[in-house]
Amino acid sequence: MTCNLRSPIPTDMSYTWYKDNNLINTGQSFVIINARTGDSGNYQCKGTKTEISDPVRLDVIYGYVILQAPIYVHEGDNVTLKCHHYPGYSGGQTIFYKDNTVTRDWGSDPELHIYNINLAESKVYKCTKKVLNYETSSEASIPIKELFTTPEIKVTPFPVLEGDNVTVTCHTNVSPYRPETELQFAFHKAEQNVQRFGSSDQYGFQSAKLENSGEYYCEVSGRMRVKRSKELNIEINEPFTQSEIIMTPNQMTEGDNMTLTCHTIRSELIPDTGLEFAFYRDGQNVQGFSLFNQYEVHSAETKHSGSYSCKVTFSTNKLTRSSKELYIQIQELFSTPEIEMIPVLVSEGNQMILKCNTIVIRNNTELQFAFYKNIQKIQEFNSSHQYVVRSAHLEDSGNYYCEVRTLTSNVKKKSEELNVDLQGVFQGGIQNMIRLILSGLLLITCFLFIFYHIKFIKSLEPASKGPRSPRL
């Protein structure tokens, strides 16, 4: 008997032998000279720092006929059984039995050949032979080993979440006595082949989708043997449901506090901190990914109107889903104010009135007005939309604008600037005189035009041809 180890083998390796669990010898090989029935038993060997080998059964029989069989037989092997008789004697006809039924009977050939043996084959065979004119028989047990175990299909990770990178493994063990056996693997989903036979024992898909769910099984092929695993139900679980963006309150007017919520239902398979949220307006990011599922706008303005959406991402596998867009219109409380001066031209000493005009859009909105000259406030906020200068002076010239706000001051709007250029008294008198002269010249021109026009018309009438006769 020889104790063989898989390479590499250390140079200082030592071996020990055991029979029926008792130490009997050392050295890589163990030789029995002149075997006796007492040598029958289970033999094992062990190398330094290695596990003990599987037991090998040796039977030494005191008889005229023995049925010899290989120690290790694997499914798919071609097996030869030899009906061997005692040396020095002649043996007659040999008959082989399987399950006590004759399986071959052809004379002096002492060997039975079994091709491509399988696990379903009977493990007990018997042969009979005539020695010294006596029919003698012998039985042998054939321990048929699996060339490879029935495969088991496994999935990683487990459980599987949508967006995961999934690996399906077809796991089997090759007999340690046939480590050189080459295996081929195939994978199926719901009886449909998804990966043909090949050397890889793995099948996978990136970024798992819900439609990847199903019943999977694998097959292993080796030496004309095909074994199939049990089916494994692989369920792709949603880490979170489709997101939806919700606005609170339902309608928005400028000045309101707006809260947008990115609503989704989280799976129990992921942690509380597993999801992150981001918000967008008209496709532009307004709040980056974070653990907060709300976006808030304090004192909303009309510029905050737009199409809003949100995204949810699973931080572990980066699965991201976007909500549908929600259009939000921020309603105005009042229009942008316009500043107006009455009259349009004001001379020094005359009254000047500035008006801050706006249109109230939402009823019952109370407003306050303030006026500014050259950026300096000249009238504090109050309910009057007018600023009055009773007697204007040249120094009242400048750039004016007004502001309008609500009572709560959370909405404020500013008008454009109005340039006011006041004229002095002398400059105003000259301008008035010029106006009078121009008006007089215009009036004289009109009279002359009318006079000459009438005279021209009369000149066109026909001349009289004599005195007219009196009428009776």
Task: Provide key terms for this protein.
Immunoglobulin-like, mainly beta, 5-stranded antiparallel β-sheet, 472 residues
Q: What is the helix content? A: under 10%
The percent range for strand residues is: 35-45%
Query: How can the largest sheet be summarized?
Result: 5 strands, antiparallel
Report the oligomer. Answer: single chain
Walk me through the structure:
The protein is mainly beta. The chain folds into 4 domains: 131 residues, Sandwich (Immunoglobulin-like), CATH 2.60.40.10; 86 residues, Sandwich (Immunoglobulin-like), CATH 2.60.40; 88 residues, Immunoglobulin-like; 88 residues, Sandwich (Immunoglobulin-like), CATH 2.60.40.10. It is 7% helix and 44% strand. It contains 1 helix and 41 strands. β36 and β37 form a beta hairpin. The C terminus is likely disordered.
In summary, what is this structure?
This protein has 472 residues and is mainly beta.
Helices and strands in order, then pairings?
Blueprint: E1 15-19, E2 22-26, E3 41-47, E4 56-58, E5 65-68, E6 73-74, E7 79-85, E8 91-98, E9 101-105, E10 111-114, E11 124-131, E12 134-141, E13 144-145, E14 152-156, E15 160-161, E16 166-171, E17 184-189, E18 192-198, E19 202-205, E20 214-222, E21 225-228, E22 232-234, E23 236-237, E24 244-248, E25 252-253, E26 258-263, E27 275-281, E28 284-290, E29 294-297, E30 306-314, E31 320-322, E32 326-328, E33 330-331, E34 338-342, E35 352-357, E36 367-373, E37 376-382, E38 386-389, E39 398-406, E40 412-414, E41 418-420, H1 425-458
Parallel strand pairs: 6-13, 15-23, 25-33
Antiparallel strand pairs: 1-2, 1-3, 3-4, 5-7, 7-10, 8-9, 8-11, 11-12, 14-16, 16-19, 17-18, 17-20, 20-21, 20-22, 24-26, 26-29, 27-28, 27-30, 30-31, 30-32, 34-35, 35-38, 36-37, 36-39, 39-40, 39-41
